[in-house]
Design goal:
- By secondary structure, the chain is an alpha+beta fold.
- The protein has 23 helices and 31 strands.
- Helix 3 crosses helix 9.
- It is globular and about 80 Å long.
- It holds the Pfam family Penicil_amidase.
Length: 820
């Protein structure tokens, strides 16, 4: 009996050791080895951190040439002082990896289409299909071109190599105990960092910012509605003024013209007879969120209290944890720069030097075209181009799948780029083949542009640096200690004929490609305008005097006007005034639309709940503050109205018209045919559809209050905003109650918003910076600096960021030295 009990206990012990030391999958969700994960000495408990220094002083690190001083302020922001450039970027890679390694690797895996290696195929093959989409869009293809470009330049080759060495030096220090939490949760280990990963990060940002297009949607709209209706729905330029740059006296250059005769008529350009007989039925890959945008501006010293320029920048992007940006200062002979970096890429992306400051917003320009390709036969070995059958390049993509067999996909490459959609991916009707042309596939070296910006001393240096910048296209705001302010819309922009770039193109003619690009010195720019400020907020870039044709998926119509109206009315500006403007919740869209909406209601026929809602809206001050109930009712009304108006477009590959144009059509053309609701026998006009949307929105609000046990609906509660973890695991979300919304200067929607708020005063006595972002410096959930800036960001608070000039500066919390 004793022997039996012994072997029984032994079997149970062995079984438990086996079970607790291997990963499992439960309901398609990965479960790490529970024993190791819960180990109190080596498991996730080991990721808990004190608030003090996490890097030992006098840390010996192979690869350094001299000692590097790293000073940390109260936010755990590192100020790196090195004695040479190589050590500076090595230390940046090392320190950034210490705080953000898992984020860096996860984001580059996502960009390269390699998430199946970490997560598996996902429910319904969702992860696999995401990865396939990334490969078919050519993200790695673009990064490889960028890598060749940066490696051809000795400066960028050196800084990327040293940054990579620094990341790998940190990886070499890790064991299971010190692995970041997510590696333990997902049960895998980091792989060596490479320069390609640095390039992938920039291409991932380009995907977020410059991959929106509407070619197929516009082609469908042209086929379904005709050109006149299409122009009414999607005008190139909406009837709202206030461009980024206004040059009423015109431009002093001779524009580039194409050799071919400009095409003015839409049927000539898109060749209507060759368009598909039926609407295109491609199930398109998700594009960037339409709430993605940004604000930036610079005010001349003539309008500030100090007499020095002030520059402000807040890029609006998806809000994630760990945070998108990593703030730091880089100091070495010839460089002293500070601001926001992208974890995984060397240098500062948005920030200042001791002489200038700069910030960016998305330029919104159309830098994507789609081409329908004709293959010779089902083998797809040759496609038609200029009357010849040209060889296709065939790439077999291997997807390593965690806990499963590998998956293989064949991607065809043409003169235009990868064939993204075909009979195996995205096509829902008869097999068609659509090739993808994207400006970010072209070789470019943005690292060199930022390298020079990080060392710029004046406006000339800023212009010289931007000459090297191509993608993603951005509006670069500038200010200097010398007193200059400027704006430049910079990117590599194709010269387009009228209407070109809006529709699906015939891939059998190379003449349909980009045959010329706007020269750098003819890009849109302005310096020291008479009004005393420059600004951009994703609006139309320029007035009608600019000689080049401009098109995009959409331009912003509200934030920019609110910013300009406010700046025009301010004098003796202080940094506090700019903080107030960056966090401004005034809803200009509501100011211009709500009176018209309320006028459409029939007060006598409203239910008691509707009467109450109407009164709340009548008395609302038009601010989307987090405590505002009027904001909740207005946004609910708007969210009910848009689907009712554009119900004809549901289920089709079509683009819904913009917010501004929708309101414009409601006011100016109230009997427009699209206002008729398809599913009702009546023929509705603007008035009826507004009323119906109001009734629906009030009913939805009453249900929301009932479901949440609330008697009111404060906007911060109703919006239900959160900052999600990159794993998309719901338990790791952090919920927040914030004001603002899309179309508002404080552009915080439910999951998007100002990812980095920065204000810089360019004073001759010393540059001063204030900043905050939604998260914290550490990527470790167990760190005091994981989300320590999140609530201050919600509350509109800022931190003074010390811009150090000497490692002995006293404005630090702790310091450490890295040694060779």
């Amino acid at each position: 009996m004793r022997v039996f009990k012994f072997f029984l206990c032994l079997a149970i012990t062995v079984g438990l050791v086996y079970a607790l030391d291997r990963p499992w999958t439960i309901k398609n969700a990965p479960v790490p080895p529970v024993g190791r994960f819960l180990d109190p000495f080596q498991g996730f408990w080991a990721n808990l951190e004190d608030s003090g220094p996490q890097i030992a002083d006098a840390m010996p690190i192979p690869g350094l040439h001299d000692k590097v001083n790293v000073l940390f302020d109260s936010l755990a922001m590192p100020h790196i002082f090195a004695q040479n450039e190589e050590d500076l970027y090595f230390a940046q890679g090392y320190i950034t990896a210490h705080d953000r390694l898992w984020q860096m690797e996860f984001q580059t895996h996502a960009a390269a289409g390699r998430l199946t290696e970490i997560i598996g195929r996902g429910p319904g093959d969702a992860v696999l299909n995401y990865d396939r989409g990334q490969r078919r869009l050519g993200l790695a293809f673009a990064a490889e071109h960028a890598l060749k470009s940066l490696e051809s330049d000795p400066v960028t080759h050196k800084i990327v190599e040293k940054y990579t060495e620094g990341v790998n030096a940190y990886i070499q220090t890790l064991d299971y105990k010190t692995l970041p939490f997510e590696y333990k949760l997902l049960h895998y280990k980091p792989e060596p960092w490479t320069p390609l990963k640095c390039a992938l990060l920039l291409k991932s940002m380009a995907q977020t910012l410059n991959m929106r297009d509407k070619d197929m949607e516009m082609t469908n709209a042209l086929r379904m509605f005709g050109f006149d209706v299409l122009q009414a729905l999607y005008p190139d330029r909406e009837p709202v003024s206030d461009p980024i740059v206004d040059k009423p006296n015109g431009w002093k250059f001779k524009p580039v013209t194409l050799d071919t005769v400009p095409l003015a008529l839409p049927d000539e350009l898109v060749q209507l007879k060759k368009l598909p007989a039926e609407p295109i039925k491609v199930k398109k890959l998700p594009s960037s969120d339409p709430t993605t945008g940004s604000n930036n501006w610079a005010v001349s010293g003539s309008k500030t209290a100090t007499g020095s320029p002030v520059l402000c920048s807040d890029p609006h992007l998806g809000l994630n944890l760990p945070s998108l940006w990593y703030a730091l200062q880089l100091h070495a002979p010839g460089v002293n720069t500070m601001g926001a970096s992208l974890p995984g890429a060397p240098g500062i992306i948005i920030g200042c030097t001791d002489s200038i400051a700069w910030g960016v917003t998305n330029a919104q320009r159309d830098l994507v075209d789609w081409y329908q390709v004709s293959f010779q036969d089902n083998k797809h070995d040759k496609y038609l181009l200029d009357g010849q059958w040209v060889d296709t390049k065939r790439t077999v993509e291997k997807f390593v799948v965690k806990d499963g067999p590998a998956y293989y996909d064949t991607v065809l490459y043409t003169h235009w780029g990868p064939v993204t959609y075909d009979d195996t991916f995205g096509e829902r009707g008869n097999p068609k083949y659509y090739a993808f042309r994207w400006i970010s596939h072209d070789p470019s070296n943005e690292f060199l542009a930022f390298y020079k910006l990080n060392r710029a001393k004046n406006h000339h240096d800023y212009m010289e640096a931007l000459d090297l910048y191509e993608s993603p296209a951005q509006n670069f705001v500038f200010a200097s200690v010398a007193g200059d302010i400027a704006m430049r819309v910079q990117g590599k922009f194709p010269v387009r004929r009228q209407q070109e770039g809006k529709f699906l193109l015939d891939g059998s003619k190379s003449s349909n490609g980009w045959n010329a690009f706007i020269p750098n010195d003819q890009n849109i720019m302005d310096k020291n305008p008479a009004r005393g400020f420059v600004s951009s907020a994703n609006q139309y870039p320029v007035d009608g005097t600019y000689p080049y044709y401009i098109t995009a998926s959409s331009f912003e119509a509200y934030r920019n006007r609110r910013i300009n109206q406010t700046l025009a009315g301010l004098d003796h500006i202080r940094p506090e005034d700019m903080m107030k403007l960056q966090t401004d919740n005034f809803n200009l869209k509501a100011e211009e639309s709500l009176p018209y909406f309320l006028k459409a209601l029939d007060s006598a026929s409203l239910t008691p709940a509707e009467q109450k809602a109407r009164q709340i809206l009548v008395s609302w001050n038009r601010y989307n503050d987090k405590a505002s109930e009027g904001a909740s009712y207005y946004e609910a009304w708007w969210n009910s109205l848009m689907p009712l108006i554009w119900d004809e477009m549901a289920g089709h590959t079509l683009e819904i018209p913009t917010t501004f144009n929708t309101i414009y059509l409601l006011k100016e053309n109230p009997t427009f045919s699209f206002f008729d609701i398809v599913k009702t026998p009546e023929k509705e006009t603007a008035t009826e559809v507004i009323r119906k949307a109001f009734s629906q929105s009030v009913a939805s609000m009453e249900k929301w209050k009932s479901d949440h046990g609330q008697t009111t609906a404060a906007w911060g509660e109703y919006k239900d905003g959160y900052v999600g973890h990159l794993t998309r695991l719901e338990p790791l979300r952090v919920y927040i109650k914030a004001g603002g919304n899309r179309d508002i200067v404080n552009a915080h929607s439910r999951t998007h918003g100002p990812s980095w708020r920065m204000i810089v005063s360019l004073e001759k006595s010393g540059v001063k910076m204030w900043a905050v972002y939604p998260g914290g410096q550490s990527g470790n959930l167990g760190s005091a600096h994981y989300v320590d800036m999140l609530q201050p960001w919600v509350d509109g608070q800022y931190f003074s960021i010390p811009f150090l000039r000497d490692p002995r500066d006293g404005r630090i919390k702790y310091s450490t030295q890295l040694h060779p």
